[in-house]
Every structure is written in structure tokens, then in C-alpha cells.
Design goal:
By secondary structure, the protein is an alpha+beta fold. The chain is built from four helices and three strands; from the N terminus they run αβααββα. It has a three-stranded antiparallel sheet with strand order 1-3-2. Helix 1 packs across helix 4. InterPro entries: Metal_resp_DNA-bind_regulator (IPR052509), Tscrpt_reg_PadR_N (IPR005149), WH-like_DNA-bd_sf (IPR036388), WH_DNA-bd_sf (IPR036390). This is PadR family transcriptional regulator.
């Protein structure tokens, strides 16, 4: 799945979901958490992650907090109130999509 393009449409939802479960995260931490949760099946590259983070920030869904860690600056991302609301909306949308795909691909699993 690491070469699959299917997850790209869900990248923002993945980021929002992780940030809803963690008060704040930095980019590398996000990539590693996804890799851990998917047992390596899904690997988010920096080239995909950072443009998505910047877009979410520009849309007012994320706040950025810069902290000095080991004499380096690290950007932490956290959800805004608008980001929390959008996370709920995106997760509901994704759930409906998954249910629709299950109905199409395996009708006996459909509820």
C-alpha cells in the first residue's frame, strides 16, 4: 500500500485524526505514527505531508507552535477549534465513503 495513491485523498483526514488524539505533533512524529499504526503499510513522505500541513494551516484548521528542542527549532501542529469541527466532519464523510465502497465491493458486509 505504500505505493498506493488511494490514501492521498485521505491524507488531510489522517492528519486531522492524529492531531485530534494528540494535543500537538511535529511532522516527523506524524509520519512515524502513521507508519506504526499501519504496521508499515502506509508511509507518508515529507513531500506529501508538509504541503498538506501548510494547506491545513492556511485554511485555519491548524495552529503552529515553534519550540526549541536540542538546540533546534521544531514546529508543532495542533488543531484549532475550526480544525476540531472539520475533523468530525471529515471522519463522518470518510466513514460514509467506506460504507459505500463496502456495499459495492462486498455486498454481504454492507449494513
Amino acid at each position: 500500500m505504500s505505493n498506493s495513491k488511494l490514501y492521498k485523498g485521505s491524507l488531510n483526514t489522517i492528519i486531522l485524526r492524529l492531531l485530534s488524539e494528540n494535543s500537538k505533533m511535529y511532522g516527523y512524529e506524524i509520519t512515524q505514527k502513521v507508519k506504526e499504526l499501519t504496521k508499515g503499510a502506509l508511509k507518508i513522505t515529507e513531500g506529501a505531508l508538509y504541503p498538506a500541513l501548510h494547506k491545513l494551516e492556511a485554511e485555519g484548521l491548524l495552529d503552529v507552535e515553534v519550540q526549541r528542542v536540542d538546540n533546534r527549532l521544531r514546529k508543532y501542529y495542533k488543531l484549532t477549534e475550526k480544525g476540531h469541527r472539520e475533523t468530525v466532519s471529515k471522519l463522518n464523510e470518510l466513514e460514509r465513503y467506506i460504507e459505500t465502497m463496502q456495499a459495492l465491493l462486498n455486498p454481504k458486509w454492507a449494513t
